[in-house]
Amino acid sequence: MKAIDTILGHRTIREYSDRPIPEEIEHKIIEAAIRGSTTGNMQLYSIIINKDMEMKKKILPFHFNQKAIVEAPMVLTFCADFNRFNKWCRLRNAEPGYDNFQSFTWAIIDAVIATQNACIAAESYGLGICYMGTVTYNAHELIKIYNLPKGVVPVTCITVGYPKKVPGLTDRLPFDAVIHKEVYKDYTPEDINNIYREQENSELAKKLIKENQLENLAKIFT
What we know:
Layout: H1 3-8, H2 23-34, E1 45-50, H3 53-59, H4 68-71, E2 74-81, H5 83-91, H6 101-124, E3 128-132, H7 139-145, E4 152-161, H8 175-178, H9 189-200, H10 203-212, H11 217-221
Antiparallel strand pairs: 1-2, 2-4, 3-4
Helix pairs in contact: 2-6
């Protein structure tokens, strides 16, 4: 499959079959992550691979007990990591000065690029992935479970496995919602109404509004 077809065909997979991932494909997924762009070629990230069921059960509560964590054969947690780079600097008598927000931002960007490369690689092999937004809610707990030292912070996590079923494409905002030519053009109320009209009138939105007994989709988000 061409890379563009893989990217445009992305679906979030939350239910997985029990089919194992071949070791050579796992290796290619990690290799793709490592080949991603990185700040100054510093590779300011680390990847924790969870395949052991007992370990997945330990992290399950901190992912709001989403069954994809234990159902997927592989869970990858991507961490912003300055610990390794700082240790290298100090071993070479170069005192690092990276304990600041700018450096943390570099490391987050590196970790997210590596994650997305892993996702595209996995999907190119017919696997499914799901980003777990729960990592930042419970980073402090995951730090303890993973024995993360100072300078290492979990940023995001993906579940990886063969889909049990393939859902339809998730809706996305139209091009006009996200594209700005040359400079940023702010949105008028009319623009906002046009941009979100289709999403607000979708069957999913209607279902969520009914389930949550709220007035509109925006109130569900907030």
